[in-house]
Write a structure and sequence with these properties.
Strand order of the largest sheet: 1-2-3-4
Structural class: alpha+beta
Number of helices: 4
Number of strands: 7
Strand content: 15-25%
Shape: elongated
Helix content: 55-70%
Largest sheet: 4 strands, antiparallel
C-alpha cells in the first residue's frame, strides 16, 4: 500500500483513495500510477515506464508506446476530479504533480515550520552539550592552575 499525505494506493484491490473517494484502477493503470508516485516530482522517461508496466526490453519499448498512451488517457479520465495531475514532458515522458487546495497548502506549510522548529531545537541541544563540555574543560584547567598556585604560596 502506497501512502502519501494526499492519497492511498492499495496494491491488493488496485483502488486509489483520494479526497475520500475510491477509484478502481485496472492493472496497468495501477502500475503506471504506482511508478509515477514512486518518482513523484521527477520526470519519468517514457521507455522506463513502458519497461516497468509491460516488463519488456529497452529495444521492445518502442512497440508499446501507443498502449501506454491509451492507459494514460484512461487513467487521466479516472483521476480528473482528484488533486493528481499527470503532465506530459514533450519528447521525454511524464511527471506526476499534486494540485493542492488552500487547506492542503497551509497543512504543508505548518508541517515545514514544525520540522524547522524541531531541527533548531536539536541544534540548540547539540550546542548546549558542546558548551557544557567546554565549560568542564575550562573548569578543570582553572582548578589545576589554582592548585599549582596554592602550592607555591
Amino acid at each position: 500500500m502506497e501512502r502519501s499525505d494526499f492519497m492511498v494506493l492499495d496494491e491488493n484491490t488496485k483502488i486509489l483513495i483520494t479526497k475520500n473517494k475510491p477509484i478502481k484502477l485496472r492493472k496497468n493503470e495501477y502500475l503506471l500510477l504506482y511508478f509515477l508516485i514512486k518518482k513523484r516530482y521527477q520526470i519519468c522517461y517514457k521507455k522506463d515506464i513502458i519497461m516497468y508496466i509491460f516488463n519488456c526490453t529497452e529495444e521492445d519499448a518502442k512497440y508499446w508506446s501507443s498502449a501506454l498512451s491509451q492507459i494514460l488517457t484512461n487513467l487521466r479520465k479516472k483521476i480528473k476530479e482528484t488533486n493528481i495531475d499527470i503532465q506530459s514532458v514533450y519528447g521525454i515522458g511524464y511527471i506526476l504533480r499534486y494540485i493542492l487546495d488552500q487547506n492542503e497548502k497551509k497543512h504543508i506549510k505548518n508541517l515545514e515550520i514544525k520540522e524547522k522548529i524541531n531541527n533548531l531545537k536539536e541544534e540548540i541541544k547539540e550546542k548546549e552539550r558542546k558548551i557544557k563540555i567546554l565549560e568542564e574543560q575550562l573548569n578543570e584547567r582553572w582548578n589545576i592552575k589554582y592548585i599549582k598556585y596554592e602550592r607555591y604560596t
